[in-house]
User: Fold these one by one.
Assistant:
Number 1:
Amino acid sequence: MLDIAYPRVIPGPPRPSRILMPDSLHRQGRETYEVAGGGALLIPVSAGDVVTVTNTEGGQVAELVAADETGRIDAGLLGVASNSEARGLKALLSGGPRAGSGLGGLRLGLERRGIDLARAGAVARFDAETPAGASESFTITRAGNLIIAAPGADMAPDAQDTVTPLGVQVKRASLIPVRRFDLPDPLADPVLDLRVKSATAEAYFVKAGDYIQVIDVDGRQCTDFQCFSARKLDKGIEHALDVTTSRTLMGHAFSVPGLHSKYYDHDMLPLVEVVQDTVGRHDAFALACASKYYDDIGYPGHANCSDNFNRALAPHGVTARAGWMAVNLFFNTAIDAHGVVISDEPWSRPGDYVLFRALTDLVCVSSACPDDTSPANGWYLSDIHVRTYSGVQTFSRAIATRATPNAEPKMTKDTAFTPRTSALTRNVVEYKGYWLPQVYAATGAIEEYWACRQAAVVIDLSPLRKVEVTGPDAEALMQYALTRDVKKLSEGQVVYSAMCYPHGGMIDDGTLFRLGRDRFRWIGGDEYGGIWLREQAEKLGLKVMIRSSTDQLHNLAVQGPNSREILSRMIWTAPTQPTVQELGWFRFAVARIGGPNGAPVVVSRTGYTGELGYEIFCHPKDGEAVYDAVWEHGRDLGLRPMGLAALDMVRIEAGLIFAGYDFSDQTDPFEAGIGFTVPLKSKTDDFIGRDALIRRKEQPSHRFVGLDIDSAVDVGHGDTIHLGRAQIGVVTSATRSPILGRNIALARVDVIHAAPGTAVEVGKLDGQQKRLPAQIVTLSHYDPKKTRPQS
């Protein structure tokens, strides 16, 4: 007999795959929301639902107002009695518009449901001392609607009593969708409210100027969108939206809000523009799924979007097609390094949407994709919903961003200075959740550059993240979380520092302001910095509050040789604060515009240009007054506005680093050229990443250097650096320097080949077929000793 060795049998049934996903994608009757600081939202509720309100960052008052299905105010829905008059909520609703507050949608929701807050009582919870993470739960006694507000007053620039968000989780008693309001409230009164059932398609007419909102109801559900000029169809001309034409004209893989927003037919007639997008991941390459696709993979007769389009469009006289070109909304595709088209589950979550604006009368068609053979719909088929709105409505262009996977989306906002900058340029780009000017129409990047080097410029840098750190353990937290020695920081002083993970990789770089003994303000580029600080404080049990104030503090940078004179003319300080003339490098003053009764500001002698410069921080309500004052006092001194394009030139010349380009979480401060922020010898206290940074400093693998490029050919982020055939580094940032008259770059290279004077080559095309001669130089091409900003 043969002696057969059988494999060892693992007992029991198979284990399910372990997949970690954001909370909002779990379809188990749990919903998460965020109430913006200074905002409010409305949530429909049913009997037995459990609503939990969390003080996310601490110190934020919450007001809850409950109304039954008839609109009558009744705190009994929460199972408690009212204990306040909802003054905070009423003040919010009576005030002016606040971007991202949700108040516009709330007003519409209250009107639709007949809820009158005039005599409303509220259930007030939390106070200024409530710690971060504190929560309270309520069990709903009967069906109705719940309004939750995070009220608060405007924060003065030198104060730290900022309004912060509240987290809300709803655990539904029943998994049956909440009747009429299982979708987010409409953006305005809808003209059309159309449900596209799973695995079907629907056609509809939209007037020129009207808006089309395509909503993913349950999340991770693709929908194909197609449209025709109705006037052309009336003439028998079937010119559908053409994604190839659109990609060519827009220069984007798919159209997005902003400069690259339109979709065209193949006659280059613009049909729609993208106004808002809460997802940011779609496909404009592949056809809508068709019968041949399913036939070829072994599913003959499978429902498909192309056949569904044909049925929906037949009443409009549109000829059937075997496969339809379309904008495949929420479809997650990419092209890998080998040219292969790959796809995965969509990024969209319940309630995510794309908002189009019709540029001509349209016949549109939308599908709910029936593909259950791949991850394209998250292995779960669901509905799509379409709403259209009248063109008399106004919707600002916006893209959603999330600080973390579990964070609620935040739509792109204007800054406090947009009313002024928008009159000077339409060339704006999305940066960190805000729209910022890229180039100004009357100047251009080169003129803006020279104004910075020779006179003065004003730059909107409001997207910088501001975090208020207060409490008896504030210094201890910042000493542990930052690489710099915070204990040496005086009141009124600023220090530039790195913030690192335990492995030494950088989270962010930024500046720390010391406002008092137990009061700090961290200003960085990444919103996660505040979240990270809060996580560390919680781990250590420190008595400290970490609260975001980005929406309460917008800032202008006034930079250039004439910046001191401009600010001296317009800034007033009390005798206890330094004047602009007295203000030292990396110091700040609490001040006012024009005199003791002017708009309050904080002025710091800091910047991102390599020139003498200052930054002015103010509450958004004072933004226009501050901007006007800068112009009033700077016009005769050669002041110009500066956009991001010119800012990139000056900061690269000065060797100043930019997150996502010059450093990442895989880069330590030494490899990012800011090793001076890690005083390993003089800072005796422990800090996050210290042991790893000691090891990395002793055993470096890469060095951050400058490059002089002996060619006028453009060089960009990611271009490879070679010695012979071997790649020894990568370009992180590059520009053509006007003052030096040549291409320059910042780069990270192998430490063995990092000596100044080393001849290297920058690889273009595939890195081998085209090379540009270059030479390694010291990091700062312009004023390496920083004499100009210190002057």
Note: The two ends are 94 Å apart (CA to CA).
Number 2:
Amino acid sequence: MSERFNPFRADARWQQEWEARQSFKTPDASDPRPKSYVLEMFPYPSGRIHMGHVRNYTMGDVLARYKRMTGHAVLHPMGWDAFGMPAENAAMEKKVHPGSWTRANIAAMKAQLKRLGLAIDWSRELATCEPDYYGHEQALFLDLYKAGLVYRKESAVNWDPVDMTVLANEQVIDGRGWRSGALVEKRKLSQWFLKITDFAEELLEGLDTLEAWPDKVKLMQENWIGKSQGLKFTFNVVDSLDTIDVFTTRPDTLFGASFAAIATDHPLSTTLAEHDYQAKSFIAECQHSGTAAAEVETAEKLGYDTGLRVHHPLDPDITLPVYIANFVLMEYGTGAVFGCPAHDQRDLDFARKYGLPVHRVVADGDTTDPVFEGDEAYTGHGRLVNSGFLDGMDVESAKPAVIARAEHEGWGEGTTVWRLRDWGVSRQRYWGTPIPIIHCDFCGVLPAPRASLPITLPEEVSFDVPGNPLERHPSWKHVNCPNCREPARRETDTLDTFVDSSWYFIRFASQPKDKPFDTEEAQAWLPVGQYIGGIEHAILHLLYARFWTRALKHIGKLDVAEPFKGLFTQGMVTHETYKSASGAWLSPEEVKRAGDGWQTLDGGAVTLGRIEKMSKSKKNTVDPEPILDQYGADAVRWFMLSDSPPERDLEWSEAGIEGTWRFVNRIWRLVDTLDTEATGEDVLLAKALHRAIAGVGADIEALAFNKAVAKVHALANDIEKAPPTATRGAAIRTLVLLIAPMLPHLAEEAWKKLGDSGLIADQAWPAHDPALLIETQVTIAVQVNGKLRDTIMVAKGLDKAALEAAALGSPKIIANLAGAAPKKVIAVPDRLVNIVA
């Protein structure tokens, strides 16, 4: 028997060999072979890889290696999403420069990723924080600016008055800044925007072309884009010339209106606050909460009665109170709504809180009582009641009827609105792409000259004082106006990091020094054939990348509409959680087995918690490096591909990695059993082999890696059981080829051991014989009194009489019957035989 597989020697040897031979260098775009662009979402350089990274990049690597073996020209690159707030936080906490912190992290993570043996073209590596990347991003920004797709306007933001920075909605916790704890203020700042709304219809319709995307992701994007058709109408304020415009998708429920509500930053709210102290105080209170739609939806519904009333458009004699409400957003629709409590849960909660009437106008049965009882709104289909000319209509018929009345009488019109809003890309931070704009007191806002690109970040910055270091830098922002040459100022905002990740896949495909990309070269690879990443990026990143690609097509830079042909969202890696007696989270390294339970290393009590996504906060992460040190890359890769379907969560376990390590050695030993002098054919093994070739290939193509793993296990079993023949020798060689995309170091070592020339990474995927996929035999279960007693192989399609005879002739069945004559035999061709004894 051979010695155990030595992963440390094999990993180092073959990784060095691949690098020396440049095995995974991307072929020229003119390569005539079919192209395959495989890309995993690039990581943020936090400093260490985690098991989620290992799973994500292993999946993409298997596909990339398989595509190379099946005759494709493959592009499989890697880079770093390197700008962002964590680097600035590190600068403040650790007194280091964001650039040095980021670049050190990149070096560390690159070394860790290389240990996995990924088939990556590292010559195309990029980092978004480097001028040779973001300088080209600035050039594209100017292209979009010139095309009218960039503009500047005042916009409400979450402002932290202590850190003196704008906060994302996710950074506002209970109305306070996540870092400073200060009450967040709503402020209006001049912000730069990209006109994504110009492409709303295209982005929505384009979802229908994305056949290789998960339906759930397409639905999430569809909802985010949010095309709504309805009625835009006007409320007239009683005893005033003021009006309030409202958009609704439920004009059928207008007769059920009991109030109108406006956003805290609606122009009418602002006017009222000038002379109404209570209104002003209410608005100020609301401004300490987040502005995200999800946060507003879950917050307590609050309102302030302005004392104003508006005429009901369908019956001017009816008037409704006007509230300033915290759940109405100026960014959605018109910043005003009407409330129909009986048929909208949010409105019902509000009406019950403030004692407003609740009128039933849609009924699902015979109930026509205008007074609606209960605390759960009816939002289903039905017929209109208590609604004048609409009575008796169903909901879908009533909607156009109201719109037609509004248009005829001149108080409203049918219209389409979108939930999608233009993309605000301004960030008041240092560590990001400088926006290439210059402000001149005489000439206004001007694009920076292209000759000045890249506009690089200054190195000498301080984070000792809150706020944007670019704003207070003594010299960086001071430039001369490119038009009049008078003193002017650079824009000190930097770009949202989502801009960096909205085109990096194009730069991977083409990397000229003098421009962002070469159109012809980029188009040779685009769209990305298979994109792999987490479901958390389903909306923003993917939507922005789709927009950016369409915008570049709009200005003639690309002739590609969709950036990613196929999208796969992998599941998370999970682990048990542990808590000490005091309730503190414990890491896996801090606990040990104690019988059926767990205890701390010093014998303290441990409570076993739920299996959850690995996270630093719950200390249930597992560092890949010690695992790689103990088992090598291939055992870790095999674990990531085994058991769970790749779109589902995968639980990390010591038993699981031990099992994959045993399988690696099992394959290694199997290779040692090849008998080069054996002759003869094994028809059954040949069939199993060719089924495996076809099945493993199809499963890898479908990203069903766990199924491919299962088929490899089955083939290994069949080979182990088979007697020495020429077929068995061929099966062992083919098995090594089949595992090459998944267990590349073991496969290379085995290939060398078998005496074959060249790298297995350069070999072709084995071809299967379709004739051997046709099943001529089937396995029949033989039961006695309903219990399985044997399985027999018979010709497919064998008739009942012959099947019965074969079953009764089985030695196991003869022994089980012990001479007793069967009372009855039930034979089901190609399935089973049941003998009643």
Note: The radius of gyration is 34 Å.
Number 3:
Amino acid sequence: MTDNKSLLDLRSGYDEQFGFAVETKDVNNTGKGLSADVVRKISEIKSEPEWMLDFRLKALDIFMKKPMPTWGADLSKIIFENITYYVSATDKKAKSWEDLPEGVKNTFDRLGIPEAEKNFLAGVEAQFDSEVVYSKVREDLEKLGVVFCSTDEALKKYPELVKKYFATVVPVNDNKFAALNSATWSGGSFVYVPKGVEVPIPLQAYFRINSSNMGQFERTLIIADEGSKVHYIEGCFTKGAPITTFLGKKKIEDIQVGDIVLTHTGSYKRVYELQRRKHNGVLCRIRYNGDSRQEMKITGGHPVLSVKRKKLEYKNKEWKPEWTEAKNLEKHDYIAIPIERTVIAKDDRFFSVILGGLNKPYENIEFKITTDKDFFRLVGYYMAEGSIIDDHYLTFTFNKNEREYIEDVKALLEKFFGKEPLEYAEYKNGISLVLCSTLAARLFKQEFGSGAKNKKLPQWFMLEAPEKQAEFIKGYWRGDGNFTNKRFSDGYKIAFRINTISESLAEQTRDILLRLDTFASINVWKKNEPRSNSFAIYVGGNYLEKFADIVGRDVTETLSGNLILKQKLVSLAEITGDYAFVPIREITTEIVEDLEVYNFSVEDDESYVSHGIIVHNCTAPKFSADSLHSAVVEVIALEGAHVRYTTLQNWWNNVYNLVTKRAFAHKNAYVEWLDANIGSKITMKYPSVFLLGEGAKADMMSIAFAGDGQHQDAGAKAIHMAKNTRSTIISKSISKGGGKTTYRGLVHVDKGCTGVKSNVRCDALLLDEKSVSDTVPYMEIEEKKVSIGHEATVGRVNEEQLFYLMSRGLSEQEATALIVRGFFECFTKQLPLEYAVEFNRLIELEMEGSVG
């Protein structure tokens, strides 16, 4: 059984291990777009022989002429002109991990690759964007003649071997994306295993896309000579920045593991890891409209949730937020303030207050109060006009002309505390209401603070029903609000205003107004010294009418002379959905050296709120711009050879994963594809085996998991071109949250290929009503003396299985996850232990939130 803590640990461990990017300096970058000049530049950087340049240019011509595939997943949104086809962070491959550039080294350290190399791998290769930056094979295997290096290095060291086999399995004109790869390929693995040599433990390659809007086009070529065997696996802010936590603002350097912070989803999530480093490079300073206090200092590569300004003279009409690196933001672009939409409403709340003193023993009293709209309005009055005297008296002070409000407070105090306050006439037209109640005084002091500067709202109050919070605003504005209608040189300033000297209360009032779909800005009025700052909360523009409805239109219309109804004013900000978008007022950049900066990792969302603005953890490259991964893998298994190729694919959900993988299996050779697809936006991948020699075998297993916004179009192909060959294709897919999976496969048997045996099984599991699964099998059988089988099932989680597991103490979430793991067991049992554990972790993370 998996408890909540272990789920948190799982998420923390996985996101830390895999879900991040680093800021690096590019040594080579061809820029966006593809042309013959770009292809020549790639070849020039690599110092390639002339035949490879000719090959690339021919491939480019084929790519340009071939139409985009219209079958399968929707690829219409790929814009080839926006993709960068070659990026490298280093101009040489390292001989050891220590020789790598610091940012790249840190990336692979955090992935655990050096440790994996020591513990359970025969060889390791690591690719960062376009280039392989490290590769090494165990010395004992190297002495046996095993070659494991980048394909670029192989082209230099083993040119005849590469030229003999390169593009013989996947020809340049095979499909549009194979042609694209052939034109722009960079990196990938080259493996050669000599005759009779068995590599007992896996060779592994790691591929990382670290740059936004980038294409990765590695080319892998594996040659297993006669009788050989091989298994190949793919596999910050400056100090002082205020962070929004569940318990209020906290400086970034004071954030601790376990703190609960607000994220871009409007929910609170747990911090699971801290980062602190020296930054050398771009530092951005950002000021924005809506809060005159804030200046955000942020490293240039840190993503900020934003919307690009379309036209300077107009507000945007579309508000689709994207993650944009701070250095790419411009003045007038919009950045996002989160709106906390969570509602935890209770009609009755229990409070615990310590009573006693004045010669009475202290005791802890628990009591219940109906926290309805009236109570919230009373809190508003208290924030504006209330105070505590000697811990025994709850007082309110009004102008004698505010008789309506005085009577309202009297009635409220009697309703909630059972007694009417005393009324006193004060100096200069003031009226004081005094409630002699230790219980009331200590309750308000405990829950809402005492002293104008120390007043703040508790968290339960911030998460209550918006209709109650509207009453708080009404009471608060009645006490400390006014209406401004002043003429300035650039026009009239028309706004509602609430004043306070409590910075926390100013921010909380703004946040409550956001929950009421009303934007408010915060201005600071400095007097003689910072400790005397006064904060003004302004509501203006097209939010005037909304605020009028909140506080009482009859009152506001009297004050404003109906200007609200007569003028159509436009706010600089825009509220849409769960965000308020505010324009950048000023942005500057500077180059800094050895500046201490801070960052941290957050479960699930990898984002947090600093200076009121949503930012992404810069160690997680979930960029809004789509990236393209278009690899080609060629495997050649000569007579009697055995090759197993395992892929655990977990790209971020902004990656188009369009891959061509194909193997030639000669006489008595055995090829296995184990292919798991968990991540990516769209995957189209169909590992294939051409069985060219008698007795050749192929086993292909395709696993897919599709969540919200994902389409996993995957499968396998077996092409029987010799007698007595055998193939098995197993496809397992799960869809949840509106995700779509498609099995697309082919079994082909040439005429005369007698004795062929092939079996295809497709199983799909749907976890909800929104998700979709399709099966598109092709059978091309040109010979009668063969045995071909095909089975396909589509179903939902078995209710009897769920009932049985839940009757044994598992929650529905845990029971469903266990069923899913059992569904994929045929795949996991084929993996080495370390990878089976990792795969199960991935599935468990994907399953979070699938129930309820």
Note: The longest strand covers residues 579-602.
